């Protein structure tokens, strides 16, 4: 009887080192590939460029592969216990890299049925992480970028979105990462905010700025980044104009637009009752959503309904009623907003919404109730967290401090410590080095 062999891979970039391990595994017996799913990968590495089904098609057609099964955990242990292979094969580089604790788990579990761990010498000159970095420098396409948000929602407990208002701020969001015990933490995408876009231009946040003008800033971000973008569509204007917005954003590779259930000239809700606006009726709002959904060409693009009832002083139940109507009209998700620092109205909304809709994404913008962690918000039922204006807010005091310090000192020496070397900034920009 043929021996069984197990090999776990991501399968996003098939390089000679992977082919070598597959060949060595096939020599030992019937080779099963445990292909890591998006959700198994995404908290430890970037979301794969190819979908699971695309990667599976590639891997199952490699000579020597007997079958491909999903590996839904970063750890090999659940699949090893399920299939109990005679051998597990792996490159020996995991002895000294971030997978060393996974290696220890594998040796321990294979002892349970007398299985053997076979370590193949690392193929010199191949660095899969560097290959991935090089691939990301090439960029993306509108189709790939647009589809990524839905993949992230399906793969991650929380999709983390940061505001970007320029190409440079987009590059910071694109590249920022912090290593923590549970993996690498990154921002999953960007929020193109009408507030920060207009403010960065020194203009008021009103809906007098047309899509063509805002597309200039959006294009700056699109041209130098690869992560998905959620676009702040304000009220969406009249249905006929919203149809144009949907088609333009979708064509350019934007993943989603969020529109709010208000009507009339926009005024920012931060300025209290004097800026209070009239909410659209349920029928008016749903007509706009339905028109947008009918206009879109792909299944990837998302229209998300921003529910403003709580901000406007209405009850959570009235907000729920409007949200349910929006979903029935075709909305792909809902955003709920509140200025209550306790966050309890948001929690109540999430729980009531989840009682009816288990899988429709909920978007939260925890600017006022920022005492809650992403895990806590996820426990309420949230899927997407937007940090809506922090890049702009952080840049303003830094620039003011720099300007005032130079004025006081009458030279720039004193600001050296608060200014990043220009070379370091330029290195963020693709094609500079």
Tally of extended strands? 17
What is the straight-line distance between the termini?
56 Å
Q: State mean pLDDT (0 to 100 scale).
A: 90
SS summary, helix count: 17
Strand order of the largest sheet: 6-9-10-11-14-15-16-17
Secondary structural class? alpha/beta
Largest sheet: 8 strands, parallel, barrel
Using only C-alpha atoms, the radius of gyration works out to 25 Å
Uncertain segments are none
Helical percent range? Answer: 40-55%
CA-based shape = globular
Binned strand content: 15-25%
Describe what this molecule looks like in 3D:
- The protein has 433 residues and is of the alpha/beta class.
- It is 42% helix and 18% strand.
- It has 17 helices and 17 strands.
- Strand 7 (177-180) and strand 8 form a beta hairpin.
- Helix 11 (239-251) packs parallel to helix 12 (282-295), helix 12 runs parallel beside helix 13 and helix 13 (316-328) runs parallel beside helix 14 (344-356).
- The chain is globular, with a radius of gyration of 25 Å.
Feature tags:
alpha/beta, about 425 residues, five-stranded parallel β-sheet, globular
Topology of this protein?
Elements lengths: L3 E6 L6 H13 L1 E7 L1 H4 L10 H8 L5 E7 L5 H7 L3 E5 L8 H11 L5 E5 L7 H11 L3 H14 L3 E5 L3 H9 L1 E4 L2 E4 L2 E4 L1 H7 L10 H14 L4 E4 L6 H13 L4 E5 L1 E2 L14 E2 L2 H14 L6 E6 L8 H13 L4 E4 L7 H13 L5 E3 L9 H7 L3 E4 L2 H20 L12 H5 L7
Parallel strand pairs: 1-2, 1-4, 2-3, 4-5, 6-9, 6-17, 9-10, 10-11, 11-14, 14-15, 15-16, 16-17
Antiparallel strand pairs: 7-8, 12-13
